[in-house]
Specification:
295 residues; globular; transferase (chains A, B); Farnesyl Diphosphate Synthase; homodimer; mainly alpha; 1% strand; two-stranded antiparallel ribbon
């Protein structure tokens, strides 16, 4: 991976952090404990979803300031989903991004409210995004609501919880993850499309396909890392899936086959970018970057 | 109250129910348990917030089909907030709208996800509302996000939980309720304004003021009913505030003074509608209707 690209990732991460800083209420604003906990829950993380938005924006030739709002919104939704998923009634996790989870650092009621408030803020950020035309803002809100709701991310989480202790077939497992993590990752690419005034159907199709492939590859990789990764590197508890008796790709198709499948999906994701020619590198690099992650 | 008005309320309640039916996924759609629980959590209730939107729409001379989306959205937000507020880590309630609360009927994880999905749906409904111009939809989404987030409803709930066992002053109590219930009630009136293409600043000021007054009156009445009401009539557990050692208006200012204050606020709410002349009755009737509620 080029040094140039590493710099660019760092630039986008800092850009996102600054944008989040502007849209999150100050930590001392009333009610301070809630706002402090909201900021705590948005700290850190790999920011892959935001990077996909900025990367797609580069491929489409969009100015970065058209992408700050969707990048913030998607990271706020992602952060809220982690806070709620970690709750004792859900995955019951103590560790997230290398620190105590929100309900361990604060308390359970605060964690519920933090998630609720981050979700509202995500939609508010898009609705208030004056750098974008009204039509683009509305399309993004539609995508985010559809991708994160009961037919997307939240629906996937419901199926995931209901499937504990059950053995899923490969199609069932894939459907679960298309909802749970895939929908939101796909929305990153589509929101960048929404910001593009001169988008062709072929471009949208290619980016949508890239999003689907990366989303699935990411999840398979997650399952593999849960087995192979160390807690210190992961920043969350390793081996959780086994303990929770969750169906995973390695469990359903075998560890080596799962690793091979992820490689194929990443390769296919890079291949679908061909129509973008020499504009494709930011998303090619991101595919490499995600493929190379250790946590 | 006129028979005509009772019929009209029934008409709007049925209209809202039909609109909710259209926007909520079918109870057998995948994942079925989640969708069934979402519908369960949206059943019943007084629908006061939706009635305020339809009532304000009548006062402003708007067609009812411009108001279905905001009426649904506000009731979805209200329903999600009740599901989450009832959770064991929050108010820990077993009874809501005369039936088991969502986490008692289903389970805690489902209740968390139901709330999350209802919130996403609320914003989705507004973004997809083709009966409204793009600008109106965006303004409504801004209002709903601001009113329901950490500087509105969720912030109020956080302060409410943090205040248990503490004695609040009257200004602190009022600030709490302006956030917790007031912001969303006020948003009902303002969303109707957003749908109005020919709104004058005076009209918006009057409706905003009406919303603030009704919101506060409603909360004082809630505290009074918690003391005076019977569980059967309330549809929720009575005397909860006392048990939870919550500051209430009757506790802070005395029962009689609280009842008197509510009467004055309802009177003032009716008075601010004077500029609407003979268009005011729907909101005058609604003030009477809310003032006369027994639960």
């Amino acid at each position: 991976m080029s040094i140039d690209f590493s710099h660019r990732l760092e630039f986008y991460r800092r850009r996102l952090q600054a944008a989040l800083d502007r849209c999150l209420p100050p930590a001392d604003a009333y009610p301070a404990r809630l706002h402090e906990a909201m900021r705590y829950s948005c700290d850190g993380g790999k920011r892959l979803r935001a990077l996909l938005i900025y990367g797609a924006g580069e491929v489409l030739g969009l100015p970065a300031d058209a992408l700050d709002a969707p990048a913030c919104a998607i990271e706020l939704i992602h952060a809220y989903s982690l806070v709620h998923d970690d709750l004792p009634a859900m995955d019951d996790d103590d560790l997230r991004r290398g620190r105590p989870t929100c309900h361990r650092q604060y308390d359970e009621a605060t964690a519920i409210l933090v998630g609720d408030a981050l979700q509202a803020l995500a939609f508010g950020v898009l609705a208030h995004a004056e750098a974008l035309p009204e039509g683009a803002r509305l399309k993004m809100i539609q995508r985010l609501a559809d991708a994160s709701g009961s037919r997307g991310m939240v629906g996937g989480q419901a199926v995931d919880l209901a499937s504990e202790g059950q053995t899923l077939s490969l199609p069932e497992l894939e459907s679960l993850h298309i909802h749970k993590t895939g929908a939101l990752i796909r929305a990153c690419l589509l929101m960048a499309c929404d910001a593009s005034p001169e988008l062709t159907p072929d471009q949208q199709y290619a980016l949508d396909r890239y999003g689907k492939l990366i989303g699935l590859a990411y999840q398979i990789q997650d399952d593999v890392l849960d087995i192979e990764g160390a807690a210190g590197e992961l920043g969350k508890t390793a081996g959780k899936d086994l303990v929770a008796q969750k169906s995973t790709y390695p469990a359903v198709m075998g560890l080596q086959a799962a690793k091979q499948r992820a490689i194929e999906l990443f390769d296919e994701a890079r291949a679908v970018l061909a129509p973008f020619g020499d504009r494709a590198p930011p998303l090619l690099w991101l595919a490499d970057h995600i493929q190379g992650r250790r946590h």
